[in-house]
Amino acid sequence: MNSVSLIGRLTRDPDVRYSAGSQTAVARFTLAVDRQRAVKEGEQSADFISIVCFGKTAELVEKYITKGRQVGITGRIQTGSYDKDGQRIYTTDVVADRVEFLDKGGNGSNNSGSFGGDMDDPFSRDDQVPAGFAKLTDDDIPF
Questions:
Q1: In terms of Cα–Cα distance, which of 61, 76, 75, 60 is closest to 14?
Q2: Were 70 and a residue from 18, 33, 103, 116 both cysteine, which residue would form a disulfide, CB within 3.0 to 4.6 Å?
């Protein structure tokens, strides 16, 4: 299973571009994520992780998220490679399916919230079963 959950702060404002053909928004930013264990006591260290998101999520990232904001990301790891000046360059990104605000916005108002995917938590309503899941009754549970 390829699943990633991260909490960190943006190191700079997101770079948002639109694809040539379909005009789909693509947002890229770097997330500074604290390591669990510091190298020395009292010393902090962080990993700087490249994040990419697409479509409506990218548009909302462009609109609401800026440098320094703390966010939670869920998504998947994606690797790739390309040639540059005769050298093979390897890349690793986290493709974000969901982005959550974890702090207040710069204007002091509480802009906490989340977006991504279908913009809805599929488990928040009893009457809806997410795709790929079967609705179970008490009779289906063996204990």
A1: 61
A2: 103
State pTM to two decimals. Answer: 0.69
Q: Which CATH superfamily is domain 4-140 in?
A: Nucleic acid-binding proteins (2.40.50.140)
Q: What is the mean pLDDT of residues 97-111?
A: 68
d(CA 63, CA 115): 12
The pair phi, psi for residue 64, each rounded to 5°, is -115, -15
Q: In this predicted model, what pLDDT tens digit does every residue of 22-75 receive, in sequence order?
A: 889 999 999 999 887 656 666 778 899 999 999 999 999 999 999 999 999 999
CA separation for the pair 62, 105 (Å, rounded)? 14
User: Are the C-beta atoms of 73 and 6 separated by less than 8 Å?
Assistant: yes
